[in-house]
Amino acid sequence: MTTDPPAPDEEMTAFVERLARRRPELVRLAECLSLAADVERSLLRRVRLRFQPRSSSGLEAELWFSPLVEAAGEHSLQLDPVAATVLRRRLASRPREHVEAVWACTREAHAGAPAVTRWFEELLWVDVFPAAVPAAQLDGRLRRVLAAVGAAGEAADELGRWVLHYVPRLPPWLLRHENARRIQVVSCERLGLEPPPDPFPRPAVTDEEARALARRTVPVGVSARSDGLVLSRPPAPGSRTVFAPGARKVRLEVVSAYAGVPEPVRLEVWEDQSLRLRFVVVERLEADGRRVMTLAHPGSAEEVAAAISAEAGAVHCAVLLSEGAIVLHGPDGTPVGSVPTGADAPARRSLALSPGGSLLAWIEDGTARQRDLTTGREVTVEQTGRAVVACHYPAGGGELVLTYEQQDPSDPGRPVWATDRGDIWARAEAGDGEAPEPGAPVLVGHAPWQVTSVARSPDGRTVAAVGGDARLLHWELPPGGEPVPRETRLGFFADRVFAHADGGWTVAGTGGPLTLTTEDGDRYFITPDTEDCATAGDLASWARGCVVAVARWPGTHDGGEAGLRRLADRLEAAREDGVDCLAVGPFLFTPSDGSQTPGARRVVHPPGWESFPDPGALLSEAHRRGLRILADIELTAVADGPGDPPVASVLGFVRWWLDHGLDGVRVLGRHVPRGLLTDLRHLVDGYDERVLMRVEDMSEPGTTTALSFSASCHVMAGSFVTTPFLLWADAHDANPTAAHTIWGATSLLLNAAGPGVQWGYPLPADGLGDERRRLAAAVLLGLPGCPMLPLEVLRETPVAGLLAVRRDHLALTHGSARLLEPGVPGVPALVREHGNETVLCLVNGAARAETRWVTTANLGGGPGRLLDLLEGSVTECPDDAPVPLTVEAGGVRWLQWLPPGPPRPGTFTRPVPGTPRVRASDVRE
């Protein structure tokens, strides 16, 4: 790139020349100030006295209010940038000694100015003799500033504010440099601003690369709610944490997996902000529950209307959005038109669609309006002058029916209705067997919730109801005995249902699965928990399926602020590893040293803990990053001490931590007194969303090569159970017996858990080689419950990838579990199911690759595919034909069952590091 500057602005050049002929002293003074970023009164006087000593102070005032000045305040002025460029050209034509003296005077006056001011003036000096500065040297200066504004910390934020003030004032030839543009973009990114328009043609990648320099990994809380998505910074308690690049704000794209045309919704999440993104979902079902069409809209829907016998090409569904617009959809769910509304238009309501899908009606400002969707002609329906409160089309076809304000808007002759208690009633029809005369009310059945919408099929033989959860209930007519409704499971929360002439249904509601994409391309599949929570006593909701990372922290002897920064760095690293819950300690209770009350116990803190001025800083730093913290307390010495159990010191210690926000306690030690455990449970029960875990002492590793399992356990606060899980204490790869025991031990673990119990699986720190330890961790991550694994193991490959996949699939954290019959010794097949999601977990503990045969009957029936969640490959599964699945020696495979049909948008996984990412477009028939 050439550094030769273009000719200055011709109009400004001509103006300065005219001014120089009339007022040469004024222009000469301005020339001597053209190298200054800001001209203070002291600098103005110094320059005048040095370079124009015969002038009076009136010259200063004349310059202060001259057209050469862009802005002047009480203490300083700034020259017009274009005028300053012309003045520097005039300065460059003066003798070199004079020019260098001007530069020296400017530098001396601003020797104590901020670094950004001195940097800007150095670039203005380059503008005087641009040919004398090599391009590499100029780029080096720009790169130094770029590195400064791209650094972390508040100082860089302040620097960015000054940079945005100064950079636009640089000469145009300097602004052509890509680093000058990058400096602007990075500064804007730091401050959460949009960069200014680029006056020079540059590829878009220049801005994108510059923005990446200011980004850091930012935790964002994600909660899938019944009506959509909630994003929070910092992550809100109980939310799932995803990591996205960003600075002051984080940019994300969200797409509903049910969107007919998956247009992303672009969101910006700022610091200390929460956003709620709502989605309305409409789904068309056949009579047997098979999905025909699904659509989704961002935003809230006031009302939904559906055609019950729409023809091809007609409108099948209309959605009235909260802002008043009506969106029309065709048979495949794609938008086919809309009825917009003005900014000040009255609210719309009572949306109605004719059975054939050709007429649309609604009420606006007490007046019924009808639009012919084939011609687009809109008319006001004739009425009696009274306000219309409701409108609808007869199910069998016909003209629009209006209900006026003096009438009861509820149709007294409606064919089916529900009471507040959930009772479903219908009017009897001729031929209903033992039913009363036609038109008499008949009790159809009872719903388990308050019904929000009910519909009857056109043939009068089926009634369907929804009540705000993910179920569509069906009753057959005429009812008999104590009718039990048939359920159709949905992937969203339904609150409206419409009947169709072919026996099918249209169901409308909110929520549904979503795809969230970050700026660096990482995608997360967010699935709301549409299942009823499994009975788990008073277990904290966040602990269900949580992975506990066991860390011996803080383990640093840095005190004060240095120690806190070190702690913050460690917590940030753990969060980036995908950890949600961290167990720290252990805090060791020992017998009294004689200086305390008899029977008391002394607490020995982990190494380096006492160097922190406030141990509660750990909790505040962790919660700010979305981490849960458990404290490990070692009570072996308590059990071995003489006399009564010293419960007061233990309870006081735990209470102090709980008062400061601790999320739970893990009790370690042999034979902890039962009374102490009961007191701890009662103490923890007094705090919301806390857990108490009892980790039993693991037996010493023996010489057996078999997997060892102990069924003894303690049920503690929150119905939480932990049990030892020992793998191959003294095994080698060639031993097939060790591999065979995986199936039996896994079966034992699953069968031992009763209803309302959450299992925890600690992994012994000693007695296992690295490979066996990783394999054991992989087994535990596939099981229901809470694996408790050393933090360093969770960072290893492939365990880190398994942890990421587990976080993205509710079937692996909240789902049920069932073992398939053992087909190959040592290769158990575990099926995890939650809602419509099914994941098959395979593990091979043998010394060679093994092939496990699986049929689709084990997974859901019918043809389909298995998507490998770790490597992205897809295996076709014919109907009821055995499918071979090969697992490498010591390997693990997690495969998601995909039913027939194209995958939904957003079906993907976060792969193991080093493997290619899998996107929806990569999975094809």
UniProtKB/TrEMBL annotation:
Native source organism of the sequence: Streptomyces triculaminicus
InterPro entries named in the record: GH, Glyco_hydro_b, WD40/YVTN_repeat-like_dom_sf
Chain intervals with Low complexity compositional bias: 906-918
Superkingdom assignment: Bacteria
Name used for this protein in its record: Uncharacterized protein
Region feature (Disordered): 901-925
Lineage of the species this protein comes from: Bacteria, Bacillati, Actinomycetota, Actinomycetes, Kitasatosporales
